[in-house]
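Open question from group meeting: does this chain pack into something compact, or does most of it stay loose? Before anyone orders reagents, we agreed to write out a predicted structure and look at it together. Recording both the input and the output here so the notebook holds the full record.
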Amino acid sequence: MIPPAPPESSDRLSLAEKENQLLWVSQVMATRQTILPKRLIAPGPDALEVEKLFLAASTAPDHDLINPWRFLVIPQHKRADLGVLFADALRQRDAYATDEQLEQARDKALRSPLLMLLIVDAAKGDSEIDMHERVLSAGCAVQNFMLLANAMDYGTGLTSGKALKAQSFRSGLGLLATEQAICFLSVGTVSSRKPFKPRPEVDMFVQIWRG
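C-alpha cells returned:
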C-alpha cells in the first residue's frame, strides 16, 4: 500500500480527493494488526523508510514538548548481546531455569529485522507533567509509527515481559534510574497472519456523562 503524496495544503484538496484520503487513512487504521515477532521476517524497512517512521512518531502529542520518550534500536550485531541479557534476567527470576528455557529467552532477541525498545523518562522536562501523560505520548508515538509501517506493507508487534524489570537487564541497556522500559517494538515483512480479531463496538468503550 503506497501512501498518496501529501498536498501543499489540505485546503487545496477537492471534495473527492479529501474523501479518497479519508478512505485510505481509515483503511490503514482498520487493517493494522499485531504480528508476533517470530512471524516478522526480512526484508525490514530500509534506512529512508526507518527515518520516515521515526518522523511519524515525532508527531505524537507532547505536553510542553519535553519529549519524555525515546526508542533504543537494537542493531543486528548486538542481538546476541541482548539475548544474553534476556537469559540473565530469566536466571535471576528462576535459578532452576533449564537450558532449553534459557535458549528460548536468548532467541527472543533474534526475531524481526528491526527491533527497538520504547523507553519513557519520568524525570525529563517539567516534573509537573504526570507519568501517565508521558506514557500516553509514547503510546501515540508508537501508534503513529505502526500505522505508517502498515501503510508501507510492514507488520509490527509490541512485546514486553518480566525481563524489562530486571536490574541486570536495565543496567545492560544503560537505562537511567528514572527511565522505564515500556515494551519492544518489532518491524518486518509478514510471513503469516492469524485471522483478524473483531474490533470492539463503539458503544462498548464510549459513554456520555449525564451528571
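Observations to bring back to the group:
The longest strand covers residues 179-190.
Residues 34-191 form a domain with the NADH Oxidase fold (CATH 3.40.109.10).
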